[in-house]
Amino acid sequence: MVEMDAMRTRLTGLLGAGLGRADELRQDVTARWFGDSRATPIGPRLARYIAETWVDEPAAARGLREATASVADSGMQIGPDQGQLLHWLAALVGATRTIEVGVFTGYSTLWTALALPADGVVVACDVSEEWTSVGRPFWAEAGVEERIDLRLAPGEETLTGLLDDGRSGTFDLAFIDADKSNYDRYYELCLQLVRPGGVIAIDNVLWGGAVADERRRDADTSAIRALNAKIGADGRVERCLVPIGDGLTLARVRPPSSSSNGR
Q1: With CB atoms 3.0 to 4.6 Å apart as the test, which of 21, 170, 204, 215 could cross-link to 14 if both were Cys?
Q2: How many CA atoms lie within 13 A of 207 on its CB side?
Q3: Which residue from 227, 122, 224 is spatially nearest to 173, judged by alpha carbons?
Q4: Structure pTM?
Q5: For residue 3, what is the enclosing H or E element?
Q6: 176 phi and psi, to 5 degrees?
Q7: How does strand 97-101 pair with strand 248-253?
Q8: Domain segments of the chain as ranges
């Protein structure tokens, strides 16, 4: 309480000095309550502890992860901790129908499919036969190959086709991890496809920290930064950002009647 009273006193003084100084205090408060003092750096030792203590990676998923390590651009694959989170989310919402935009070798697809019932389906959208073929043997090994509806076409084309087929509001979970310049379009389409109470998960939203660096103005960084700002003010969803991997946004779709412009 003493600390908060002192900060209120400082705020009063700064307001008297003008808005510029008030902005300075706001940044100071943000840094103190959401900055380094509240963050635990994840180095190799702690990452190993998390993996050994918390992640229960299925054998087929581990095999696919290891096979992906030799593929070009293997860094695009999510980690096992994030795969487990997707699995948990799918189970939490009782998912039977999910969407994945950006499959790569299918590691996240496998984790999600394992959380679905026998008649569940992951509509998996990608454009690469080469990359997705890496995952197929491991999907079969895990016994989930029949639950994965792989569609090799541009993601927007597949999502639009689902809407044209009357699939609006029929999916429980969507995971977006594809070309960043189209993230906003994928988000808008998934908002139509995912039912109220369902979740849209979006990967790479911290983009290696570049989103917080105003000097970074490249197309991908700008697209992610813009979407982050949009979702942060989007009354159609309840949202949070989980600093796992390269940052994962979770947006829970509100019923249309409860949408608002604020939290």
Answers
A1: 21
A2: 24
A3: 122
A4: 0.85
A5: helix 2-17
A6: -110, 120
A7: unpaired
A8: 2-38, 66-258
Largest CA distance in the chain: 67
Please identify, in words, the CATH class of the domain defined by 66-258: alpha beta
Q: Is the distance from CB of 219 to CB of 177 less than 8 angstroms?
A: no
Q: Are 204 and 246 in contact (CB under 8 A)?
A: yes
* pLDDT 10s digits, 18-60: 445 545 544 554 444 455 556 788 888 998 898 889 999 999 9
Residue 198 neighbours by CB under 8 Å, 6+ apart: 93, 95, 171, 172, 173, 174, 252, 253
Tokens of 61: 């998923």
Strands 194-203 and 248-253: antiparallel
Of 110, 109, 104, nearest to 68 by C-alpha is 104
Packing angle, helices 183-193 and 155-164, rounded to 10: 20
Give which of 137, 158, 164 is closest to 63, Cα–Cα: 137
Cβ-contact 145, 121 below 8 angstroms: no
